[in-house]
TrEMBL record:
One of its GO terms (molecular function) is ATP hydrolysis activity. It comes from Motilibacter peucedani. InterPro entries: AAA+_ATPase (IPR003593), ABC_transporter-like_ATP-bd (IPR003439), ABC_Transporter_VariousFunc (IPR051782), P-loop_NTPase (IPR027417). Pfam families: ABC_tran. This is ABC-2 type transport system ATP-binding protein. Keywords: ATP-binding, Nucleotide-binding, Transport. It comes from the Bacteria.
Length: 299
């Protein structure tokens, strides 16, 4: 299998409002994929469709080659931690593990769950309602990985955590990926989280994929050009403009190119992942605007 998630023309409508429209995406297997975009971009809707909590209004989606939540076997192959890292306040940590074992009888790894709880310093008798936000998130992650899924879907799992708890959660996630060879889709609007944990990124804006690819490859094929004011149309055909800024005398372009920029008029600078993501989130990088070829070249 080359893809764990495939969407084609995917859309979801709530009465008159479209939460996701015409989304086409292919997520490779064996990667930790960061799904990045602003609030309201459709990230949570896409992930809820992927785990079968929602049904598409238009288009199609397949996960691990099958219909999301199509049967018990398909459910067992996917782990999910929702945005609010849900736990039951009145249940103890041990109760949660017993619930996980009951709901995932065929795949549940009790030894793994108990080992994680012990390593995290969680008291099995402690009620979830008395745990910190970081501890609840870790408990939710434990339930997600102990079912031994092929794909783990995480929807903004650290959005409400303090910086230290975020770092600990993401470190634990990376260790779980290494131990279990998981495929992961992690949504976030915080680029630093994606940079820390992921090796592949998808930028989703207004329901549409703006760019997707291996992070290292994207960073080596995108540069910032700064020099005398110039129209984007004057750049070579192999330099696909993603975003452009101009002053009276100077132009700054972020371009995607497979070749070195040899024109001495330009100062050429490498990008951070945040630079790249923000460039594709800019209005001029959205569908219907000039830099469409940059997106098409990466699909």
């Amino acid at each position: 299998m080359t893809a764990v998630l495939q969407a084609e023309g995917l859309g979801k409508r709530y009465r008159r409002r479209w939460a996701l429209t015409d989304c086409t995406l292919e997520v490779p297997a064996g990667r930790v994929v960061g799904l990045v975009g602003p609030n309201g971009a459709g990230k949570s809707t896409l992930l809820n469709l992927a785990v079968g909590l929602l049904r598409p209004t238009t288009g199609a989606i397949r996960v691990l080659g099958g219909t999301p939540a199509g049967d018990a076997g398909q459910l067992a192959r996917v782990g999910y931690v929702a945005q609010d890292t849900p736990t039951y306040a009145a249940f103890s940590v041990a109760d949660h593990l017993r619930l996980g074992a009951r709901l995932n009888a065929g795949t549940w790894d009790q030894e793994l769950a108990e080992r994680r709880v012990s390593r995290l310093g969680l008291d099995p008798a402690q009620r979830a309602g008395r745990l910190s936000g970081g501890q609840r998130a870790q408990l939710a992650l434990t339930l997600g990985v102990a079912k031994r899924p092929e794909l783990l879907v995480l929807d903004e799992p650290v959005a409400s955590l303090d910086p230290l708890a975020r770092r600990e959660f993401l470190q634990d996630l990376m260790e779980a990926v290494a131990e279990q060879e998981l495929s992961v889709v992690l949504s976030s609007h915080v680029v630093s989280d994606v940079e820390r944990a992921c090796d592949y990124v998808v930028v989703l804006v207004d329901s549409r994929v703006q760019v997707a690819g291996d992070i290292d490859t994207l960073l080596t094929t995108h540069v910032r050009l700064t020099g005398p004011r110039r129209d984007a149309a004057s750049l070579p055909a192999d330099q696909h403009v993603v975003s452009a800024r101009h002053t009276d005398r100077q132009s700054s372009f972020i371009v995607r190119t497979e070749r070195p920029v040899l024109d001495p008029v330009w100062a050429v600078d490498s990008l951070t992942l945040e630079d790249l993501v923000l460039a594709y989130m800019a209005p001029e990088a959205r569908p219907g605007a000039a830099p469409t070829p940059a997106l098409e070249a990466l699909r």
